[in-house]
Amino acid sequence: xxxxxxxxxxxxxxxxxxxxxxxxxxxxxxxxxxxxxxxxxxxxxxxxxxxxxxxxxxxxxxxxxxxxxxxxxxxxxxxxxxxxxxxxxxxxxxxxxxxxxxxxxxxxxxxxxxxxxxxxxxxxxxxxxxxxxxxxxxxxxxxxxxxxxxxxxxxxxxxxxxxxxxxxxxxxxxxxxxxxxxxxxxxxxxxxxxxxxxxxxxxxxxxxxxxxxxxxxxxxxxxxxxxxxxxxxxxxxxxxxxxxxxxxxxxxxxxxxxxxxxxxxxxxxxxxxxxxxxxxxxxxxxxxxxxxxxx
Length: 295
Known about the structure:
The protein is mostly helical and 295 residues long. The chain is 75% helix and 2% strand.
């Protein structure tokens, strides 16, 4: 074997410097992440208690809690996904499997890219004027969910299109060759194969909803009240539905307000809860994708 092979070649000083710079950059990134998480938990865990998670912040009663904000966040997440997933996945299927390449697809792609680049504050202003004023929703959780749907459609559409493109053409040709029509092929072969990629987009969308504040301040408002439930199931269902039309601040909105009020300890506590939610979402993503791949 030649003594000048790639495996035995000595590293040049420039290569050693670049390798050290790469390792240094990676170490710095990890150090910053650990430092931010550690400082956030060190400052925020002090306010954690059962009362913190089961009560609402009320200056008159002297209580500090995030129960109402947790419920509002859940409302926004569920309603947004119920609207955005069917529309986004359906649009991606149409553009990938039915629409012919031409002016229409170019316009759709341009509109998707344009929506993805619009700042969230503009979405908030649009939601406040159109959904809140023209449609008469005012400051409500439904207004916030509709506004978040507009923000998340580009993310869901892009991830779904990319997931559909990654499915081998042999799957499509095999299903059609066995006599399946196009919709049956999409429903039974294409979507299950693309499910991990689609699920990735959905989980990323949930993380975007949980971390959004600007657009929701303008549309959903900042109320902290919990729905008042009674003893009868039917009455509770009606009250939970009526909550959709009420104003409600999410966890990120409450964090912003507490920072404005100088309640930094409470703000750090809310930040810890948000960080835990993001970590749980990422863990859920990995487990779900792994499960789909095994299936």
